[in-house]
Amino acid sequence: MAANHIQPQIEAFMKDNPPDIFIPDIVFTWSESIAKTLRIPRLIFKPLSIFYFCMVEANKSIDDPKQEAFLLPKDTNLSLGYVKFHESVINSANNSDGVIVNTFFEFEEEYTQLYEKIIGFKAWLIGPTSLMVQKTMGGTICMNNDEHECFSFLSSKEQNSVLYISFGSMSLLSDEQLFEIASGIEASGHQFLWVVHSKNKRKDDDITKEEEKEEELKWLPKVFEEKMMKEKRGMIIKGWAPQVSILNHSSMGGFLTQCGWNAALETIGAGVPMITMPLFSDHYFNEKFITEVQGFGVQVEEGGEWKLSPYDPNKKV
């Protein structure tokens, strides 16, 4: 993991430039030793929900594995490597002077109180960090919004009428899943803005941009993109998109998301309801929190898994 590979460089820099306090991310699982060497306080930054960590602790007390169904979807398999990494991340706050969490008290009040009782020290809540960026920039959510073509599309739509679809930069769906989503969007009749990240399937230096585009979008239903553009009903963004600005646009009516915590907080800050489709890691816990605890989202499919079988997309959209 990259966080482990840069350990020598970070430790050398800190020894040459001793800080007053060390605030590492939870993935810097080696941070305790250097803090002890320099005799400085260590606060762990946690970019995940407090609910997630509470559920992990609750999971440890479950004797019957079958009872874990309320935490993880059926047939979810975790690799041994992930489990070991997960344990090291959870334990990274051991012997720290506190944790800093990207969340806010009103959102996770009961779980914050429980979490502090479990860990035995203070949790400082500083989120949503996306709103902090907005405030720092003087109310401008994202620079150069006008330069992105999606805003001319969104500005032509009525208030709360567009479904935003994005599964984050780390989640790559199969062609079969993407096809099913496209088919559901088309059948629903709703307007949409869909962010699709490149899979980088081919590394051929001789491939042209046109050929690369055709390769990336070959999973689309026949003439899907052309039909949506002609009807002015939808738009596909290939690559990065200014998500915070999109979510805060007046045309936003909902967000189909993988339930990454950053995306969840950005959506909450914008006041947009969610349609949840978790893919890995903390996504499943976040979905439970969003749909069952807080109640401002609905699941795409109970259990969180896609199958190539008919379903009614109209109910979910």
Automatic annotation (TrEMBL):
CDD domains: GT1_Gtf-like (cd03784). It holds the Pfam family UDPGT. Keywords: Glycosyltransferase, Transferase. Coiled coil: none annotated. GO terms for molecular function: UDP-glucosyltransferase activity. InterPro entries: UDP_glucos_trans, UDP_glycos_trans_CS. Belongs to the UDP-glycosyltransferase family. This is Putative UDP-glucuronosyl/UDP-glucosyltransferase, UDP-glycosyltransferase family. It comes from Lupinus albus. The lineage of its organism: Eukaryota, Viridiplantae, Streptophyta, Embryophyta, Tracheophyta.
